[in-house]
Amino acid sequence: MNAQAVSDQDYYLKPGDHVRFAKTIAECDVYQFAGITGDFAPVHTNQQYMKDSFYGQRIVHGVLLMGFMSTTSSMMVAKVSGEDKEEVPVSLGYDRVRFLKAALIGDTVTVDYEITAVDAKRSRTVASVAVHNQDGELLAVAQHILKWVRNDRPAMRPSSPGSA
After folding, report:
1. The pTM of the whole model exceeds 0.90
2. Residues 34, 140, 62, CA angle at the centre, nearest 5°?
3. Domains in the chain: ranges and CATH
4. Which of 101, 74, 90, 94 is nearest to 143 (CA)?
5. CA-to-CA distance for 102 and 92, rounded, in angstroms?
């Protein structure tokens, strides 16, 4: 086995590492997300507008589903992170994002996040992310990249009285 393969194998995460998150999407989730982002498009917020559409009702923001993808990334990172680590993971982004089917208010979505590749030389991991509804229908997919960066933060010290 070459040195690169050994370091990939001994990295923070390894191919096959997996986390799962599930949530029922309530109407208040959609409205709170619309309020935070300013995206009050009628496809998300106006039942009358959508009742005669292909969907028959309002659809959930696709980017809200991506937020749930981010939740699973944080869950994965929590498995290995700590203040004593020499490196900390940050998101480099999501590639190949596709919304294959709409999520609807009331759907229970399950997000699976699985590490598919490790590149220790470039300090990166790649994960496959998939979102399914309660009927097992695939709603969205993406590939997520984590970059592991140096953690040069000085040790936390208690502040002395009168210091800001």
Report:
1. no
2. 10
3. 3-25+60-150 (3.10.129.10)
4. 94
5. 26
